[in-house]
Design goal:
Length: 360
């Protein structure tokens, strides 16, 4: 197989597994997986990893870019790239090619079956994703930069906050500051929700003014050098009622308990259980309606998931979020979230932004 540094090493790992799975090749169609295995950043590509070599298929727009970014053998197709990949598979007379059933449409499957009648398409789920769960040193460095940019962007945006500012205007300011500080784009649509709307865990910023004497929930992430970050902070606007201050401290206690539970070898359910235990003691367990966290990297949501029934065990090098929250319909909500690295001795919170209840 053609060498290619870290990317080549990843492809070699896949290639070594092909024999164990009794496959001649793996056809990769998910763009984040292709980037992980090749370094290619274009928007249209397929990757065929065989036991001896790897082939990247893309279109003429990416001719120069593909040859610069990857050490794979590059095919520039002037017809659909799927047809080009099928032609190579047929020419090599492969008997068995792995495909990810979660990424393969019925139309694509039908096309491949028609063009490759003697080749078995073997469903292979999460083969690349399993590798992506544990980050390399270079990946961790990129995530650190993304986390830093994300936190700086929030600080800069909040300095420009004005009473009665609209949620949508603050979200736009946050996105602008991310880009100004080096991010390519937000990792997801920035969430800014004030007052009763903060009870919606994934509220979209609205045109409502952010009024005084209520809480403001901000969930944001930056994508930098291809890698994501994720952070939520809940801040006060004006006077924060004592009842909401108590609720904030309960969520913070739950978040810290979940972080304390993060270490190699424990099931991914343990941090979730720790967070829920704290909220149960405060009588808030029924207001926590989502999982405690998720992995991130090239995508904002990756394995592992940190939920009640997750059995996968945490490993050093995983990067996850810890984000318990409470949501009271018609009243408001609180969520506190950090990006966290699992280390050999426990974990490291990468997010530098303070979790003390700030008041604007």
């Amino acid at each position: 197989m053609t060498s290619g540094g870290e990317y080549g090493g990843r492809r070699e790992t896949i290639a070594r597994g092909l024999a164990q799975l009794d496959m001649d090749a793996l056809l990769v169609s998910h763009l984040p997986n292709i980037r992980y295995l090749t370094g290619f950043t274009g928007s249209n590509a397929l990757l065929l990893v065989t036991r001896l070599d790897s082939f990247l298929f893309t279109d003429p727009r990416y001719d120069l870019q593909a040859r610069r970014e990857t050490s794979c053998r590059v095919t520039i197709a002037r017809h659909p790239i799927l047809a080009a990949a099928a032609k190579l598979i047929a020419r090599r007379r492969f008997r068995s090619v792995g495909v990810d059933p979660a990424r393969l449409t019925m139309a694509t499957h039908g096309f491949l079956k028609e063009k490759l009648p003697t080749c078995e398409l073997k469903p292979v789920a999460d083969l690349v994703e399993a590798l992506r769960m544990v980050k390399s040193g270079a990946e961790i460095d990129r995530i650190r930069r993304s986390v830093t940019t994300n936190s700086k962007a929030l600080a800069q945006a909040l300095r420009r906050f004005k009473p009665a500012m609209r949620e949508s205007d603050l979200a736009a300011e946050i996105d602008y500051q991310m880009r100004r500080l080096g991010a390519e784009q937000p990792s997801f649509e920035t969430i800014v929700a004030s007052g009763a709307r903060a009870a919606l865990p994934h509220a979209r910023p609205g045109n409502a003014a952010i009024e005084a004497n209520q809480l403001l929930l901000i969930d944001m992430g930056a994508t930098q050098d291809g890698y994501t970050s994720d952070m939520t902070r809940t801040v006060g606007v004006g006077r924060v009622p004592t009842e909401w201050r108590r609720r904030y401290q309960a969520v913070l206690e739950a978040q810290l308990a979940a972080i304390d539970a993060v270490r190699p070898g424990v099931p991914a359910s343990l941090p979730d259980r720790a967070a829920r235990g704290v909220l149960t003691r405060h009588g808030l367990e029924k207001t926590f309606t989502h999982s405690t966290g998720h992995g991130l990297g090239l995508e904002i949501h990756e394995a592992p998931r940190l939920g009640r029934k997750e059995k996968i065990r945490l490993q050093a090098g995983m990067v996850i979020t810890i984000e318990p929250g409470i949501y009271l319909e018609g009243k408001g909500g609180i969520r506190i979230e950090d990006t966290v690295l699992v280390t050999a001795g426990g974990c490291e919170v990468l997010t530098p932004t303070s979790k003390d209840l700030a008041v604007l």
